[in-house]
């Protein structure tokens, strides 16, 4: 009976984590769209929705600690709980960065925009969303070989960061009045790059869950 209850509790943890991940995935999609379309109202929605993401993390943490205290899991069962704890923290930070992008959207009202840069930011945002989505699917499937393949997507995100930074820098050199706009672009691509880092972390936690080994990809 105790084992049945324990497995039910673990299933609830997994389901709550996946629901949290999908909410953050939606946040990333909305915040990038708000930024490149200059939609301040959509940006405000992203900021307001952050409370739901935070609530997910609090519930997951509370349930995880409750399982550890009452069930005293060992071996792979313990790794399961630890994986959820760590991965949910990474997902919550993704949500925080989505909010930061939304705040930049609101802050940039009235600033001159650079269309070429924003087109590239849109592409970067799309691939960051795809990266997070792949990491969440990986979490469900638990494929170690696939984990390395998904984690490699981070290299493309890092390349976007370098390329967009260089492009924005060239535009600012040609027109110094764009320096304030450029500052916000640099921040936004930094937030997207960090979301990619957290997606890679999830890949690392999948490897830990499956093998017990802590790796750095």
TrEMBL record:
Per its UniProt record, what InterPro entries does this chain match?
A: PhoU, PhoU-like_sf, PhoU_dom
Q: Chief subcellular site?
A: cytoplasm
Top-rank lineage group of the source organism: Bacteria
Q: What does UniProt give as GO cellular component?
A: cytoplasm
Family per similarity comment: Belongs to the PhoU family.
The cross-references to NCBIfam families, in alphabetical order and at most eight, read: phoU_full (TIGR02135)
Q: What is this protein called?
A: Phosphate-specific transport system accessory protein PhoU
* UniProt organism field: Streptococcus intermedius B196
- Organism classification, top ranks? Bacteria, Bacillati, Bacillota, Bacilli, Lactobacillales
- Gene that encodes it: phoU
């Amino acid at each position: 009976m105790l084992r049945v209850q324990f497995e039910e509790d673990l299933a609830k943890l997994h389901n709550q984590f996946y629901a949290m991940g999908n909410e953050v995935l939606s946040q990333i999609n909305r915040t990038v769209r708000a930024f490149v379309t200059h939609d301040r109202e959509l940006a405000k929605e992203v900021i307001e929705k952050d409370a739901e993401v935070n609530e997910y993390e609090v519930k997951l943490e509370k349930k995880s600690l409750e399982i550890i205290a009452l069930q005293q899991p060992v071996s792979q069962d313990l790794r399961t709980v630890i994986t959820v704890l760590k991965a949910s923290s990474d997902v919550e930070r993704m949500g925080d960065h989505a909010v930061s992008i939304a705040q930049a959207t609101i802050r940039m009202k009235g600033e001159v925009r650079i269309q070429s840069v924003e087109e590239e930011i849109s592409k970067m945002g799309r691939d960051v969303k795809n990266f997070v989505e792949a990491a969440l699917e990986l979490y469900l499937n638990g494929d170690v070989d696939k984990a390395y393949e998904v984690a490699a997507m981070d290299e493309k995100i890092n390349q976007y960061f370098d390329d967009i930074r260089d492009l924005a820098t060239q535009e600012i050199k040609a027109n110094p009045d764009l320096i304030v706009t450029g500052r916000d672009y640099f921040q936004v691509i930094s937030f997207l790059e960090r979301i990619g880092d957290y997606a890679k972390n999830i890949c690392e936690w999948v490897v830990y869950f499956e093998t017990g080994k802590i790796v750095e990809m």
